[in-house]
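Co-fold these.
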Amino acid sequence: MKRKITLKQIARELDVSISTVSKALSGSKEISEDTTQKIQAFAKLYNYKPNNIALSLKNRKTKTIGILIPEIVHHFFSTVIRGIELVANRRGYNVIVGLSNESFTKEIINMEMLANGSIDGFILSISKETLLKQDYHHFNATINQGIPIVMFDRVVNEVDCDKVIVDDFNGSVKAVEKLLEKQCKSIALLTTMDYVSVGRLRTQGYIAALENNDIHADPDLILKINDGLDENHLEDLELEIEQFFKINPSIDGVFAVNELYAVTAMKVARKLGLSIPDDVQVIGFTDGVLSKHATPSLTTVSQHGQKIGEQAANLLIDRLGAEEAEEAEYTMSNERRSDFIKVVIETEIIERESTK
Amino acid sequence: MKRKITLKQIARELDVSISTVSKALSGSKEISEDTTQKIQAFAKLYNYKPNNIALSLKNRKTKTIGILIPEIVHHFFSTVIRGIELVANRRGYNVIVGLSNESFTKEIINMEMLANGSIDGFILSISKETLLKQDYHHFNATINQGIPIVMFDRVVNEVDCDKVIVDDFNGSVKAVEKLLEKQCKSIALLTTMDYVSVGRLRTQGYIAALENNDIHADPDLILKINDGLDENHLEDLELEIEQFFKINPSIDGVFAVNELYAVTAMKVARKLGLSIPDDVQVIGFTDGVLSKHATPSLTTVSQHGQKIGEQAANLLIDRLGAEEAEEAEYTMSNERRSDFIKVVIETEIIERESTK
DNA sequence: TGTCAACACGAAAACGTTTTCGCAAATAAT
DNA sequence: ATTATTTGCGAAAACGTTTTCGTGTTGACA
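Predicted complex below.
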């Protein structure tokens, strides 16, 4: 069990100073060719690699990004992580993951844990509880400490930072207009409570699309589902949707703000003897495994999670680079209130079997 | 933009030494109550938190675990991560994630990147390419450097470390026996190529279960699917399975080693006019979103990914603790070849609509 | 032979902690 | 009043780097 070798050990072994070793390894021309050769050979032999922690301490940056998301067992979030990891790695960064579990407190604890030097910046999506509480002080505190944040998907105006969002509004508009185009006359909306910003935006898109086509949005056709825990009370969800269908037999099109609602709607419809897409057409938001492999496969609004992750990572790393540059220059007394960027990722409709 | 405050700054501000501050904050009784009060108040006011990097350097441990998995957009792996994160956090550890993307090279690069001080230990699942190459030197090298590894799911005998595995063999046996119990006479197996150890084990379980019941396993009923990239050539997968069904019309039961194969089989069966579960019953391995929400919902062998993650994390952290203890004791010249633990997580059959 | 660069290298500081040890002053014991 | 013991604090080392600034040795040049 050989611990990793350090500069000091190499120095002692070769009877030179630590500085000489360091310089030789970085190829400084301050050191003679002879010693450089010798040192490099020795280092290679013992597989020397500089200790990251020591470097982090010295450089006051860790080259790692903190990701903070509400839940990881979730297709959308994991694609985002994949995107982040992809560009982070390409640009020499590591990725450390924290899970808030939709809890305000865990979000804060996680942030504080990572903000103490472990990471250079955050990429995060806000937990539901935080959204409910509307308490964003921890984000602002972190930013004030000089740690940049990039928010994605679930973002909020109260925090000044770069943001990457899905074009929820237009995505919904597109979806609903697609249904209209396919001759749906009575389009229902399956959505979440309003405090989830994406839910709200998608609802607005639904309404706007209808009104664009001179159709008055009938409140009875909107089902706001209280998703305390989503996955877990599947029965309730099914029941609720079934009731909804029974009360509104006119429904011939369904737009659901997530996959689960969409496939559940299909299930219920079939149970009620309705055929898809002949009697009811369905479009969901979020293009995940479910949509692809459901029968019939589901037409969806794809969010391009990976692209979101990539963009977020690029924004963050760019900003980290910029900060460094600023510090290097004359200290920029003019407090450059650098403007923050909001990237909107366009959605795309993927047509499958649940629409005609 | 106030950088985080350090001991040094507090010391300067309060006109005491750094050591005094440090001691006061840790509540050492070496320091008078007066100064302690003063210092603690000041620290609280300025929200002092010790710098993690500095601590890591000093203590030569980072309190973070490196997770290295082939793919994150995958229900099973993300549940494992959730499990790891859960106990890691509870036990004061952070979690840093690397993705190998099933690539041998990326696996090595990632390991080396993290092994240079960034983490205290690894939890990993081996990439397919590595499995194919059968080159495990990087794992052993890491272990020799004193960095413990815990492998899960895709493990390998050639590396001496703790392991957490699913009881693939018995899971398969249970599944097949369940089908037999439900009066299936001709049970097909949809599996992967043999180099994926879990695929092999599940295949063995299938054969054993049949033989236990005095049925000769018919090679024609075994379809080994070459999943170069799984998700991406869905069409091919469907076609291949369809051919298989046509050649073997006797099939009245299907056991698939993963969800995707199972739902695809159901899709194909339905397409061929077979009804599920009346004509064909299906059981899949891996209990993910697909199984739960497919129609009909899929009877599966659940792997308890989260439990696997929790166990793995506990094993690793226990070992890290043990190491520390060893160092503390007299240096243990007797080279305690500590025996490694292999935890087997039992599977469980979750019955749903795809079986009678 | 004396002066000056160039060369090759080392000492030391810095990043932010914790901890051991030493030392003075204050208190206690004789 | 003298010695012994506590009390309260600071100096310094250590973790592993990089980098700035010296400094001694060599060779060239006048």
